[in-house]
């Protein structure tokens, strides 16, 4: 029996009968729904749901998208992504349509059930080791993004992903940004590999740990200035500053909540006159510095120079809800939004 959470007419944003493509809530809800469509595509595959029983199509058809291509992992043949094209009927008059994406490439996160779990778990470990760029799934995703962009050109194109899929979207978006192509990117519950300091309730203790960490990271960065990778990576980090992805995080989700402290601490360090220290610390992690010292190429995927950060302050009863994709199309969210730009 299908889970109600898989059925669009029960769990989806079916109240969005008219999409205002200038409305941030509408844009976020559509992007999240397209990511959910990838999850359900894989569940349809696992459960052998044929065309008449498939539950995935309403997640994109409701918003007048068509599925152009599925992205299949070459290791386990699971569906991890999808390419959608926006094809609204000519009978619908919507003045905001020019701001709609022509194509959206969406990536799902880890599925804990079925035969995809083993492969997804291996990729989670690759992410923790900053090795996601060395996997075949990333290569397939990157090629799909490049090919789609070559077709779309300068017309509107989105990337979207949740959890592990957000990591894939981050990496592909970063690579495109390095070539001067800044794609609109929606990252839902993107993983941040760090101690979950944001879960510490005592603000003074939390701030003290962050300052100490910044001093240590900046000190190691200065000590390694002679290392050939450091200047190149610093220049690459600054070059990414014009790419401003949308990050959607929940403070009760320890997988992504550290982004809150990451950006907030940067601003606080600037306010107390320690901006130059944090400028070094924000683009490095201690683990990656050690890896580089040992001669291993390592670029921390989770560190971003700029972002539009949206925090869901609505209560989450448990981790599953806090990390879930479903929260992002609820109409009653209590959100806090702020843009951070690297200078």
Termini distance? Answer: 52 Å
- Provide the low-confidence segments as ranges: none
Q: What is the tally of beta strands? A: 8
Instruction: Write down the secondary-structure element order.
Output: HHHEEEHHEHEHHEHHHEHE
Helices, by number, come to 12
Average pLDDT, to the nearest integer?
A: 85
> So what's the oligomer here?
single chain
Q: In brief, what are we looking at here?
A:
By secondary structure, the chain is an alpha/beta fold.
Report on this structure.
This protein is α/β, with parallel strands linked by helices and 343 residues long. The chain is built from twelve helices and eight strands. The protein has an eight-stranded mixed β-sheet, with helices on both faces. The longest helix has 23 residues. The chain starts with 7 loop residues before the first helix and ends with a strand. The mean pLDDT is 85. It comes from Acorus calamus.
Summarize this structure as a short list of keywords or feature phrases.
8 strands, globular, eight-stranded mixed sheet, alpha/beta, Fungal_lipase-type, AB_hydrolase_fold, single chain, 343 residues, GDSL esterase/lipase
Secondary-structure map with pairings?
Layout lengths: L7 H4 L12 H23 L11 H4 L3 E8 L6 E8 L16 E5 L9 H12 L7 H17 L4 E6 L1 H15 L5 E5 L14 H21 L5 H11 L6 E4 L8 H14 L3 H7 L4 H8 L13 E6 L6 H5 L11 E6 L3
Parallel strand pairs: 3-4, 4-5, 5-6, 6-7
Antiparallel strand pairs: 1-2, 2-3, 7-8
Helix pairs in contact: 5-6, 7-10, 9-10
């Amino acid at each position: 029996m299908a889970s109600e959470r898989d059925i669009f007419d029960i769990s989806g944003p079916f109240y969005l009968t008219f999409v205002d493509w200038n409305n941030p809530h509408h844009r976020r809800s559509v992007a999240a729904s397209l990511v959910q469509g990838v999850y359900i595509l894989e569940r349809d595959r696992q459960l052998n749901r044929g065309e008449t029983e498939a539950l995935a199509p309403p997640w994109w058809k409701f918003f007048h998208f068509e599925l152009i291509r599925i992205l299949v992992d070459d290791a386990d043949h699971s569906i991890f992504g999808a390419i959608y094209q926006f094809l609204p009927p000519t009978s619908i008059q919507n003045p905001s349509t020019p701001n709609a994406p022509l194509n959206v490439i969406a990536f799902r996160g880890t599925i804990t059930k079925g035969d995809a779990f083993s492969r997804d778990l291996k990729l989670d470990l690759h992410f923790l080791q900053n090795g996601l760029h060395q996997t075949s799934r990333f290569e397939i995703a990157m090629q799909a993004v490049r090919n789609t962009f070559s077709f779309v050109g300068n017309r509107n194109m989105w990337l979207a992903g949740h959890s592990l899929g957000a990591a894939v979207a981050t990496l592909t978006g970063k690579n495109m940004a390095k070539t001067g192509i800044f794609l609109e990117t929606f990252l839902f519950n993107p993983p941040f590999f760090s101690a979950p300091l944001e879960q510490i309730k005592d603000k003074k203790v939390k701030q003290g740990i962050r300052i100490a960490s910044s001093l240590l990271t900046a000190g190691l960065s200065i000590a390694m200035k002679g290392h050939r990778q450091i200047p190149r990576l610093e220049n690459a980090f600054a070059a990414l500053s014009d790419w401003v992805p949308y990050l959607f995080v929940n403070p009760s989700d320890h997988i992504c909540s550290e982004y809150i402290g990451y950006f907030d601490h940067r601003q606080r360090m600037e306010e107390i006159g320690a901006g130059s220290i944090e400028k070094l610390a924000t683009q490095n992690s201690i683990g990656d510095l050690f890896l580089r010292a040992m001669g291993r190429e390592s670029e921390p995927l989770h560190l971003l120079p700029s972002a539009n950060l949206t925090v869901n302050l609505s209560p989450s009863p448990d981790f599953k809800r806090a990390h879930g994709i479903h929260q992002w199309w609820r109409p009653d969210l209590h959100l806090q939004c702020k843009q951070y730009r690297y200078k």
